[in-house]
Specification:
21 helices, 2 domains, Na+/H+ antiporter like fold, mainly alpha, 434 residues
Length: 434
């Protein structure tokens, strides 16, 4: 009851600020929106956890309700001003995921991860591309194109739609305190899968833009992708070295120092066309697997320091969902959601054939591929920018699929982790007791 009363009070105060002090929204709108989303996400997460739903679903739902498309307590201008939060949080979660992944411990699982990635991830990209082409009569902007142009755009969107969410996986692992072969496999799988999606999207997007514009420059496309991926890895190693030295020789305030680095990565990375996710992930992997630094100092310091941006990140993801626009695309969205999940399931089952695969992994690992959040939203925005003439319509379709998976997949993943018997096996406090 208390969280609900607090939410109502917050909504009343925000409405009062909008009605009686509109100048506050212009002078300090970013800070006001950040604080409001932080508190509403926190208390909504408390509410939904009482009925057995993941707190993550509550964070996203709070953003939908107070965002510009429902109550409009937080408008589009405010969400635009908070876009840096997405970059920082993506870097934080990637750094955390890399630091959690000990390659020596997961080495026995790498063969399984590789097979699932080939059959489930790349297979789903192709299946979604074929599905989009089959749905051309229901997708006006694809129906208006020549077949070869539609195929290039469908491939780009198919790759974007296949994106996973290490953020959601890390959140659910933290919330359930899961640890075991299934948990380690899912974590390694979504990291490898997201790297594959990032690289493949760069190739597909560059080729689609060139085909539609009539100027295919394969060499330039390959050069740009190589710089983004390998350049980001090089910077990530450098960041990992700096973090390792800081942990070894300073040791105090590691969490805040790491978040400051994530802030710099999010700002500078975009300016020089590097991927902050790849940078942070590489830095975390370096820390855990090469550096002599104790990564537990980093992970322990991250929880409290990253909590505010973490909550606002998922609330912002919900605030970007235009439910009215999505209603016009409900049929293709639902078809794509079903095809995507089914393809992950089928590909995972094929990739886990053989006696050396744990039955839990064979039965449940595919569920870790279904959730979507930060990367999928970022790729949806890139789709909009890459194709200005029909980008808004393509964005709405991708966002519709992401929205559906945002709200339903965390629940399925939580159930899978609980059913596996691995929940509660991780020592220490929940990293996502947010």
């Amino acid at each position: 009851m208390i969280p609900l009363l607090v939410l109502l009070a917050l909504a009343g105060l925000m409405e009062a600020a909008r009605s009686f002090a509109p100048e506050a929204l212009h002078a300090g709108g970013t800070e006001l929106a950040f604080g409001f989303l932080l508190l509403t996400a926190y208390f909504t997460g408390k509410l939904v956890s009482r009925i057995g739903l993941p707190k993550l679903t509550g964070y996203i739902a709070s953003g939908i309700i107070v965002g510009p498309y429902v109550l409009a307590l937080v408008d589009k201008h405010m969400t635009g001003q908070l876009k840096l939060v997405s970059g920082i949080t993506t870097a934080i979660l990637a750094l955390n995921a890399g630091a959690e992944l000990n390659l020596r411990k997961v080495r026995p699982l790498l063969g399984t991860v590789r097979r699932i990635s080939v059959f489930a991830v790349f297979g789903t990209m192709l299946m979604l591309t074929a599905t989009l082409l089959a749905l051309r009569p229901l997708v006006p902007f694809l129906a208006a194109m020549p077949l070869e142009h539609a195929a290039a755009v469908a491939l780009t969107m198919g790759v974007a739609l296949s994106a996973q969410s290490p953020a959601v996986v890390m959140a659910m692992i933290g919330e359930t305190r899961a640890d075991g072969v299934l948990t380690k496999t899912i974590l390694a799988l979504v990291i490898v899968a997201d790297l594959a999606v990032i690289v493949t999207f760069g190739v597909a997007s560059s080729l689609a833009t060139a085909i539609i514009g009539g100027n295919v420059d394969v060499k330039a496309a390959i050069g740009g992708i190589a710089w983004e991926v390998f350049g980001s890895m090089g910077v990530g190693i450098f960041v990992g070295v700096i973090l390792g030295r800081f942990i070894l020789h300073v040791g105090q305030g590691v969490g805040l120092f790491a978040i400051m680095l994530c802030f710099v990565l999010a700002e500078v990375g975009n300016a020089v066309h590097l991927d902050s996710l790849v940078i942070a992930l590489t830095a975390g992997l370096w820390l855990e697997n090469v550096s002599k630094a104790d990564t537990h100092k980093l992970l322990d310091g991250f929880e409290a320091a990253s909590l505010p941006v973490y909550l606002v990140f998922f609330a912002l993801a919900g605030a970007k969902l235009d439910l009215v626009a999505l209603s016009a695309l409900v049929v293709p969205v639902l078809i794509i959601v079903v095809v995507r999940a089914s393809s992950f399931y089928a590909g995972s089952r094929i990739g886990t054939r053989g006696p050396d695969v744990d039955p839990l992994v064979r039965r449940l690992a595919w569920i870790g591929l279904v959730p979507q959040a930060g990367l999928a939203l970022a790729l949806a925005e890139l789709v909009r920018r890459a194709f200005p003439s029909f980008g808004d319509a393509a964005f709405a379709l991708v966002i519709g699929v992401v929205a559906t998976n945002e709200l339903t997949a965390p629940i399925a993943l939580r159930i899978a982790l609980l059913k596996s018997g691995e929940a509660g096996k991780r020592p220490g406090p929940a990293t996502s007791g947010h």
